[in-house]
Specification:
Layout (H helix, E strand, L loop, with lengths): L13 H13 L6 H14 L3 E5 L2 H11 L7 E4 L5 H9 L3 E4 L10 H7 L4 E5 L10 H11 L2 E5 L7 E2 L2 E2 L11 E5 L12 E5 L2 H11 L32 H32 L5 E2 L7 E2 L5 E5 L8 H10 L18 H4 L5 H7 L2 E4 L7 H24 L7
Parallel strand pairs: 2-3, 2-4, 4-5, 5-8
Antiparallel strand pairs: 1-9, 6-7, 6-11, 8-9, 10-12, 12-13
Helix pairs in contact: 1-8, 2-8, 3-4, 3-7, 8-12
Bound molecules: pyridoxal-5'-phosphate (PLP).
Pyridoxal-5'-phosphate binds next to helix 3 and helix 4.
Length: 398
């Protein structure tokens, strides 16, 4: 019996390991030269003018909202198809989250944003779900018209391009005010835990850098180095969100491999598309003609009216065939804590999509043979379902 194909495995190479070991031997563990090097490389890669390395994407989102002075009385519009922390950060600054429904592609619908605008709306947080770019042209023109801030949740989108430029690039006419990236274990690149804030606005970058480390004056990080200075001043009560050099060491080498990771993910996504595109029970994920999908996730959709089994059963069937799958995301309104807002934030398209999506394993650590096995498992569940339908049986597949 062949081994279970887990939904995700990180791809960590010898270079990452050696750099961590060197960092541990260097005498400097917290944010220092390596974090600064990672920031410069990430700013170059994304075409952003400024990058601040932080300990998570959640921290980057929180810092962006705080540095833009978004708080009590303000409303921030985001998508229901996201990880909960996008919405938590809005609550953490005391603002009110407002959800706008998604398009067929799973990303926030600019027309739905428009419908949710009020005089209190201050910002929009579009999420580039699975690495598919949002309709930034429509979102940015709306934001400019209504003087709203745009913070891109790019947790899935390191490597996503929109109209020939990386998201957030200073060369793009469609970059938001800021973007937040995640280096969580399953993301396009990882530092174990980590994140990056990017912007092209110098004042915003400086405020975020200040807030990311207690609100203490610049260069405090090297206050214990030989050329450092013991003196520092607190300008405002900031947070403790900096990225350590031990983790930045991993990020420096992961970033060098990101383009090859994306090429591998895209090749595997094509294999899935070729296999599933001809089955009427399945619908392949949305792609873009307006840029480059980073293929963080492969969101297979079930045509449930052609299947006798539910999405949840489909996932159990895959597990029995040795394949780990997941679901992105449980709509925000379906979590107990958010039920109180569910009514005025109704997002029927997100809920409908949720009921039929499955995230299949998609990462550069997979072998082609493993991808073939995932394909065989998915087509096997579909074939078993067809036999069941043909037999007109009411019972489930054994
Ligand atoms: C993973 C994720 C986050 C949070 O990233 P962390 O680095 O774990 O804080 C935020 N938004 C989305 C859409 C995510 O998938």
């Amino acid at each position: 019996m062949s081994e279970f194909i887990a939904f995700h495995r990180p791809s960590i190479g010898e270079e990452e390991i050696n750099e961590v070991v060197e960092t541990l031997r260097s005498g400097w563990l917290t944010s220092g030269e390596r974090a600064a090097r990672f920031e410069r490389a990430f700013a170059d890669y994304t075409g952003s003018l400024y990058a601040v390395a932080v300990n998570s994407c959640t921290s980057a989102l929180h810092l962006a909202l705080a540095a833009l002075d978004i708080g009590p009385g303000d409303e921030v519009i985001t998508t229901p198809l996201t990880f909960c922390s996008t919405v938590h950060t809005i609550l953490h600054v005391g603002a009110t989250p407002v959800l706008a429904d998604v398009n067929q592609d799973g990303n926030i619908d600019p027309a739905a944003i428009d419908a949710r605008l009020t005089p209190r709306t201050r910002a929009i947080i579009p999420v580039h779900l699975a690495g598919l770019p949002c309709r930034m042209s429509a979102i940015m023109s709306l934001a400019r018209r209504r003087k709203l801030r745009v913070i891109e949740d790019a947790a899935h989108a390191a490597g996503t391009h929109y109209r020939n430029e990386h998201l957030g690039s200073v060369r793009s006419r469609f970059a938001g005010d800021a973007a937040a990236y995640s280096f969580y274990a399953t993301k396009n690149i990882t530092t174990g835990e980590g994140g990056m804030f990017t912007t092209n606005d110098r004042a915003l970058a400086e405020r975020v850098r200040l807030l990311a480390l207690h609100g203490i004056t610049k260069d405090a990080w090297n206050r214990y180095a030989s050329n450092g200075n013991w003196f520092y001043r607190v300008l405002e009560p900031g947070f403790k969100y900096n990225l350590s050099d031990i983790l930045a060491a991993i990020g420096i080498h992961q970033l060098k491999r990101l383009e090859s990771f994306i090429a591998q993910r895209a090749a595997y996504a094509r294999m899935y598309n070729d296999a599933f595109g001809r089955l009427e029970e399945l619908e392949t994920p949305a792609d873009t003609t307006e840029g480059r999908h980073a293929w963080h996730l492969y969101l297979l959709r079930l045509n449930c009216e052609r299947l006798r089994i539910s999405r949840d059963q489909f996932i159990r069937e895959l597990a029995e065939r040795g394949v780990g799958a997941s679901v992105h995301f449980i709509p925000i309104t379906m979590h107990p804590f958010f039920e109180r807002w569910a009514l005025q934030n109704a997002c029927p398209r997100a809920e409908a999509l949720y009921s039929r999506v499955i995230s299949l394993p998609l990462h550069p650590g997979l072998s082609e043979g493993e991808v073939q096995r995932v394909i065989a498992a998915v087509t096997g569940v579909v074939a078993a379902n067809r036999r069941l339908m043909a037999a007109g049986a009411g019972q489930r597949i054994a």
